[in-house]
Amino acid sequence: MSETKAPVKLKDKWRQKKWYNVYAPAAFGNVEIGKTLADDPQKLVGRVLETTLYNITEDFSLLHVKLHFRITKVEGDKAYTMFIGHDLARDYLRSLVRRGGSRIDGIFNMVTKDGYKVRVGIIALSAVRTKSSQKRMIRHLMEDTVNKKSSQLLYDELAQQLVLGKIASEIYNAAKSVYPLRKIEVRKSELVEAGSPVQPPPQPEAQPPQ
């Protein structure tokens, strides 16, 4: 007579999972941007979270700016991230387009002072139709401005200036001498390749008194 085996109890993986608080990097104030669930903290590394700039700044006018962060490190119940890009809400972009005007798009690759490679998409809008030659000049000014700025900035500094509209303002000021534009936005950014964080210079060793 065969023995009846007791049923094997499967572990309830859901019960094993734990909530982790996720934080933005220092460039965005180290604020909590959400919570995420995992049964192993190492499974969190590489996970991408999306939030809005409004959730960080509490400025309602920035609700359309979506930020993307990747978890890079977990300590206890805290998960830390790095900024990997942003984009603008589609409804917001559609609201910028006006009949009778022109839309000028450009996609450019940037390299920061600390070697991070970033791809950006920029949109310029004019109130009236723009000639092809003027569009080329505006794209040239876009590229020239982002290349100069990125070479002067560390990655964290660039991230701030991209999402807060400072890069767009510089392009606008450079381009208005060519053609009166109504609006310029950095509609998207994407981290293509990480560089090396700049380390502080070593302090000189103290010399014994003579």
TrEMBL record:
Keywords (A to Z) from UniProt: Ribonucleoprotein, Ribosomal protein
BP GO terms, sorted: translation
InterPro entries: Ribosomal_eS1, Ribosomal_eS1_arc
Top-level lineage group: Archaea
GO MF: structural constituent of ribosome
GO cellular component: ribonucleoprotein complex; ribosome
Stored HAMAP family: Ribosomal_eS1
PANTHER family: 40S RIBOSOMAL PROTEIN S3A
Family classification: Belongs to the eukaryotic ribosomal protein eS1 family.
Protein's name according to its UniProt entry: Small ribosomal subunit protein eS1
Lineage: Archaea, Thermoproteota, Methanosuratincolia, Candidatus Methanomethylicales, Candidatus Methanomethylicaceae
GN (gene name): rps3ae
